Amino acid sequence: MPPVAALRISRERRGSAVHQLKRMGLIDPGFRIAEEGEWVMIPLTGVPDALPPGGELVDAAQFSKRGAGMPISSIRKAAALTDMEKSLLPSKWEMIGKALLLKLDESLTSREGEIGRAYASVLGADSVYRVTGRIGGRNRRPSVRLICGSGGETIHHENGVDYVIDPAKIMFSSANHDERIRMASLDCNGELVADMFAGIGHLSMPIAVHSSPRLIAAAEIDPLTHAYLLKTVHANGADSFFQAHNMDSMDLRLEGCDRIIMGYLDGTRRWLGKALTMSRPGTIIHFHEEVRRGGSDEWRRLIAEKYCSGRVKVIAVRRVKGFSAISDHMAMDLEVLE
Ligand code: SAM
Q1: Statement to judge: residues 324 and 217 lie in one domain
Q2: How far is the CA of 140 from the centre of ligand 1 (A)?
Q3: 165 lies in a domain?
Q4: Closest to 184 in 3D by CA, of 211, 215, 164
Q5: What percent of the chain has pLDDT over 70?
Q6: Is residue 167 in a domain?
Q7: I need a labelling partner for 154 at 20 to 30 A (CA). Which of 171, 216, 232, 303 fits?
Q8: Ligand 1 and 197: CB distance under 6 A
Q9: Same domain, yes or no, for 307 and 189?
Q10: CATH, residue 307
Q11: Residue with CA at minimum distance from ligand 1 atom 17
């Protein structure tokens, strides 16, 4: 029994459409979102009163419980592999711009080139990388190997933002997607915003594109990532109000910020003192950290009372994603009181 309806929308607008449809409770959990080139098909349990911008209702018959229209069946057909090998092909992947990131079973290593070509041909990817390990280090470098295509720079479109990135060198987590959509939904008009761990503007560029801040001052310590941050600023026409500094955020010279983004996970609390020197009463701090699963109550108390000396009020706490088998990526919004 296929879903009641399906919404067809561009890959770039998927995020905000899913966000809107989730709020309406209309997404059918029994089916996967189907991807075809630049488009996605979202299975629905009903017809929305108002369609998300750029969306159109299409025939839902192509969905089946296992997603018969899902690209994985086309990929299996395209790959010259044994049935056993085909059964091991992953039905999940990350698409960053025109680059595909895949996790492959060890037994497929000798066939990875053929497999990369099959995925690239069906999904319209220019490059295919095999994920060989976890994102790591202070600069959060991906651990991937190119198995098909030319590699290099690509532009990832998401929710109206163009991120210029080399996915072999810079992380881009689809699991942080809802957080980026949330940043885009904030009213930051006229604000002075500091982004202390900018990356390529993962969290601050949505504000630059969807709001009208007075100034965004971003610090990114890694020169390579900073180079792509500059490209992303330019790609989104934000040059006049987005300052991208290649520096340690401890060296930022700012005061009276309206909003401070601390999108980092490795002991971010060490920078809270610095964030407070850049604040004023009413500043909102978006604080992220890796937190032991089940420890978020203790975490929020520790951060608010010990690291902020009670100078803040916790206004929201949310789990962004699972981070390891025993920890989560948590985010907390703090309001500075004095
Ligand atoms: N904030 C983005 C997000 O939430 O998606 C990017 C997160 S990325 C994991 C963290 C970035 O902070 C990396 O690009 C890293 O190079 C940078 N970084 C680490 N320590 C820093 C510091 N002391 N000052 C400025 N940037 C730093």
Answers
A1: yes
A2: 7
A3: no
A4: 211
A5: 95
A6: no
A7: 216
A8: yes
A9: yes
A10: 3.40.50.150
A11: 197
In a domain, 159, yes or no: no
* β-strand pairing of 259-262 with 284-292: parallel
CA-based nearest residue to 314, from 297, 328, 331, 334? 334
Confidence of residue 68 (pLDDT cuts 50, 70, 90): very low
pLDDT tens-digit profile of 100-152? 999 999 999 999 999 999 999 988 899 999 999 877 777 777 889 999 999 99
One domain for residues 148 and 40: no
The SS3 of residue 315 is strand
Strands 99-102 and 127-131: parallel
Q: Is 218 in the pocket of ligand 1 (CB under 6 A)?
A: no
Do both 244 and 299 map to the same domain? yes
What H or E segment, with its residue span, contains residue 56? strand 56-58
In angstroms, what is the span from residue 263 Cα to ligand 1's centroid? 7
336 CA distance to ligand 1 middle (Å):
23
Q: What is the pLDDT of residues 157-205, one digit of tens each?
A: 988 899 999 999 998 988 888 899 999 999 999 999 999 999 999 999 9
How confident is the model at residue 66, as a pLDDT?
A: 45
Q: Kindly report the number of other CB atoms within 10 A of residue 124's CB atom.
A: 15
User: How many domains does the chain divide into?
Assistant: 3
Q: Please give the residue range of the domain that contains residue 32.
A: 5-62
264 lines ligand 1 (CB under 6 A): yes
pTM strictly above 0.70: yes
Q: Do the domain assignments include residue 285?
A: yes
Pair 146, 244 in one domain = no
Domain shared by 180 and 328, yes or no: yes
Distance separating alpha carbons of residues 201 and 186, to the nearest angstrom? 16
The single-letter DSSP state of residue 33 is P
Where does the chain show beta strands of DSSP type E? 5-10, 34-36, 39-44, 56-58, 94-96, 99-102, 127-131, 144-149, 154-158, 161-165, 192-195, 215-219, 242-245, 259-262, 284-292, 312-324, 327-336
Dihedral sign for Cα atoms in the order 116, 117, 119, 123: positive
Q: How confident is the model at residue 99 (pLDDT cuts 50, 70, 90)?
A: very high
Q: Are residues 96 and 215 in the same domain?
A: no
